[in-house]
Amino acid sequence: MSETFEREIGGRKLTIETGKVAQLANGAVLIRYGDTVLLVTAVMSDTQREGVDFFPLTIDFEERLYAAGKIPGGWFRREGRPSSAGILTARLTDRPLRPLFPKGMRNDVQIVVTTLSVDQENDPDILSIIGASTALTISSIPFGGPVSGTRMGYRDGEFLINPTFADLENSSLDIVVAGTKDAIVMVEAGATEVSEEIILEAMRRAQEVNAQVIDLQEEIQRRIGKPKWDYVPAELSDAVARTVVDFANSKNWDLVGAAKDERSAAMNEVRKELVETLGEEHEKKVLLAALEEHMSKTIRDRILNDAIRPDGRKTDEIRPITTEVGLLPRTHGSGLFTRGETQA
């Protein structure tokens, strides 16, 4: 059964519809802002992927030329590879979502965002964040959201909520703020010499808008949300943790001292040796979880106590960028969406 939910955000109507398409997905929504419409689906595998030390989350942002009423020209009549802006939109969607999944979860989760219509005014990247969060929130997938995203502009002394492409041409600020109901989890910004006060006020106002969108998502969850899958993390006892730490210390492994490419290969060997040595006494996934916990603590202690990052640099060698930063252009290679270019 199809249901539609609405809120007025930034003087325009935000509409989220469920139960109409993609009903075999764990969660699916049609989200509309102006005449920009996206279909967002979320699915999860039934079993955990073995032998991986990361959460296998995939965000796939599918640009479609038909969404802008265009047909590919030339010899090739099909859609090409993702544009740079499409890849950036997928990353923008990934960053606020990934930390909100249960720690240690290894089930494959795939979120597909498909552009059905673009109005050349409202950027779909914000809708991608909101749609993905809503699809996860109403699904059975364990998720610590909901989360929302808001873009803020600043022009002629006024803040603009989710400014259009035309609004951003003369805006001195382009900032995207994503957050849960309790805190901001991601900020992406470009500006042309605005004060810290303006940046902070933009973040505060964006978070207020995020709270409104999150209220809408919670309303949808109360109406049609599915029971969440009960994820049970691997139990990590103090005894196992001490065993892994003692074993690692006895080998004098420098787990974070090497360069990133070298560290990856070295860590594979470390995991293999750990499981071969202690695998008869303890379960493999418990050993790997303990090693990951030890790694995280080692990296944190080295940064806080020794002021050394995993790449070997000292934290006091990292200098903040104090020069003027221009508003970065985000044009889409496919020609689906347009935004005024301002050179940095």
How would you describe this protein?
The chain is an alpha+beta fold and 344 residues long. A 6-stranded mixed sheet has the order 1-2-3-4-6-5. The protein has a 4-stranded antiparallel sheet with strand order 8-7-9-10, with helices on both faces. Helix 2 (124-138) runs parallel beside helix 4, helix 5 packs across helix 7 (284-306) and helix 6 crosses helix 7. Residues 318-335 and 337-344 have low confidence and may be disordered. The chain has 7 helices and 10 strands. Helix 1 (84-97) links the parallel strand 5 (57-62) and strand 6 (107-117). The longest helix has 29 residues, at 196-224.
Secondary structure blueprint with pairings:
Blueprint: E1 3-9, E2 12-18, E3 27-33, E4 36-48, E5 57-62, H1 84-97, E6 107-117, H2 124-138, E7 148-155, E8 158-161, H3 165-169, E9 173-179, E10 184-191, H4 196-224, H5 238-250, H6 260-278, H7 284-306
Parallel strand pairs: 5-6
Antiparallel strand pairs: 1-2, 2-3, 3-4, 4-6, 7-8, 7-9, 9-10
Helix pairs in contact: 1-2, 2-4, 5-7, 6-7
